[in-house]
Amino acid sequence: MSYNGLRVLSLESRRAEEMATLIRKQGGEPFVAPSMREVEMERHDEAFDFAERLLRDEFDGVILLTGVGTKLLWQTMLSRHAEADLKAALQRTTVIVRGPKPSAAIRGIGLIPNVQVPEPNTWRELLETMRPRPEKRVVVQEYGKSNAELLAGLREQGREVSAVRIYGWDLPLDTGPLREAAARLAAGQIDVVLLTTSMQVVNLIRIAEEEGIGGQVREALASAWIGSIGPTTSETLEDYGLKADFEPSHPKMGLLVNESAGLAAGALANKR
Fold first, then answer.
1. Which residues pair with 227 in a beta bridge?
2. Coil, helix or strand at residue 128
């Protein structure tokens, strides 16, 4: 299994160095351009309101979508309320976690989740998991932009739904590497693109449009071989008229790199 010297673009941010190492070990020529950064909300009114309602037992279920968001939400609530009171309130509710990261975050607080959504941990699996459950008053810890489909789906199940957002996504402070990634794509210098979250697609296209090469970048992505971490990222590609060529057996970065290495070369030849 090897990329056989293919030029592989990753837009990973937090684990950029690790991603480059993984690609290189699989015989690829990596170019890693951090494409996003987490930005805390300037005001935490939603978090404080959530904490007060939680303490008043106004929720039957708390849905945690991300590990980072769970940690930030917890830290923000602790700035105003006693830890013991918050833990007791969460224990009186059903805690639903979307995947392993929010599960680890809630366990780090000293609590055990009541419900874990199965892989690939998208909003669709979350809705299916919630469908037979009795919780009527639920709150969703959101991230980045609001997931309208998820909130609407929960409401269609007859639930009273609230949302709390603690952070969002923005471009990296240094957009130079991302602009170079767009330029390399437009120049036909990228063979494989590996995506680990949907916002990478959004920010790449945003930068390409700013550079005046949006059309060329979309054409390059259409002719490249695209590996997507999972359905949510693949759906975002479809929003731009693009299609993922591959999703790994489980939505994990290492598997995305390793499993795609043995497929990309042959598949790319057929695609082009």
1. 194, 246
2. helix
pLDDT for res 168? 77
Instruction: HSE, CB side, 13 Å, CA atoms: give it for residue 115.
Output: 24
Q: What region, left, alpha or beta, does residue 158 occupy, with left being phi > 0 and alpha being psi -120 to 50 degrees?
A: left
User: What's the token pair of residue 22?
Assistant: 């993984």
Cα–Cα distance for residue pair 268/272, rounded to 1 Å: 6
Task: Give the Å distances, CA to CA, from 120 to 95, 147, 239, 247.
Answer: 19, 16, 20, 10
Q: Kindly state whether residues 165 and 177 are assigned to the same domain.
A: no
28 in the same domain as 77: no
- Mark whether 152 and 50 lie in a shared domain: yes
- Which amino acid, one-letter code, is at 146? S
| Residues in Cβ contact with 19 at an 8 Å cutoff, skipping those fewer than 6 apart | 10, 12, 30, 32, 194, 196, 253, 257
Structural contact between residues 245 and 226, judged by C-beta atoms closer than 8 angstroms? yes
Query: Are 44 and 154 members of one domain?
Result: yes
Nearest to 196 by CA among 14, 42, 67: 14
pLDDT digits (tens, 9 = 90+) for 171-181: 999 999 999 99
Question: Which two tokens mark 81?
Answer: 């309320």
Q: What is the pLDDT of residues 26-76, one digit of tens each?
A: 999 999 999 999 887 667 899 999 999 999 999 999 999 989 889 989 999
Q: Is residue 218 domain-shared with residue 131, that is, in the same domain?
A: no
Q: Are 171 and 37 in contact (CB under 8 A)?
A: yes
